[in-house]
Amino acid sequence: MGRTIVIANQKGGVGKTTTAINLSASLADLGKKILVIDTDPQGNTSSGLGVEKNEVENTVYELLIGETTIEECIQKEVFENLDIISSNINLAAAEIELTGFEEKEFILKKAVDQVRADYDFIIIDCPPSLNTLTINAMCAADTVLVPIQCEYYALEGLSQLMNTVELVRDRLNPNLEIEGVVFTMYDARTNLSLQVVENVKANLDQKIYKTIIPRNVRLAEAPSYGMPITKYDARSTGAESYRLLAEEVINRGNEEEW
Ligand code: ADP
Ligand code: MG
């Protein structure tokens, strides 16, 4: 039964989409069957995985407003072992259109539950906000994976995110847990990155991955070729780090405590 992981942080530019794309691709490379769901109207996860997002007929938007079934939304094997439900700018209207929908927080969950058994992992990328789309993702998910950018304001907004997770757990999805926190864009040449990591470790009482994602230009380049790092440059430090993260994610699922 697929473990559903939502990648969330209401801050933009922290590496959510880069992590969604490359963690998914690395898990797929390790032989796991993956479904990626892009719930950000920007659709960067979709285009980063080579999808012509504006030409897709059935996206997350059509799914949420009830125009289609989840099976019809899944684009199969865009890469080996990797399926996707994509999104595009149409999804920006969903927030308003869903107002008044019954149980609107659970639309994605109900859909995902129908296909869970087909996958090892379902990875959901989120928009940089705590809106209905993110809440839908958190209701569909088992766990939340939080990317934290190694910069001075790293901790800002984190308590708000953790409060939202608490709130969702209390009211909507009692099983929701923190999957883990992953540091992104680590720059070994600066003291700042190291200080941020130490500061967050000292102040955040959460599971933190041993793998730290370095700042790596190949990771930034890959999306413009519509490829995950596993295909664009499998020997880069970026590819290596996401592979290690994928191994940790797989092993976490087997461990009780870590
Ligand atoms: P988010 O989805 O949280 O807004 P993104 O994953 O889109 O963040 O990342 C923001 C920007 O930083 C993008 O241009 C992306 O290519 C770049 N980026 C993300 N992670 C890395 C990294 N480890 N090394 C270099 N560039 C990165
Ligand atoms: Mg993003």
UniProtKB/TrEMBL annotation:
Any one Pfam family match given in the protein's UniProt record, by short name: AAA_31
Catalysed reactions, semicolon-separated: ATP + H2O = ADP + phosphate + H(+)
Subunit text: Dimerizes in the presence of ATP but not ADP; ATP-binding is required for double-stranded (ds)DNA-binding. Interacts with DnaA.
PANTHER family in alphabetical order: P-LOOP CONTAINING NUCLEOSIDE TRIPHOSPHATE HYDROLASE, PARA FAMILY PROTEIN CT_582
Top-level taxon of origin: Bacteria
Family: Belongs to the ParA family.
InterPro entries in the record: AAA_dom, DNA_Partitioning_ATPase, P-loop_NTPase
CDD domains hit by this protein: ParAB_family
Entry protein name: Sporulation initiation inhibitor protein Soj
Domain AAA: 3-178
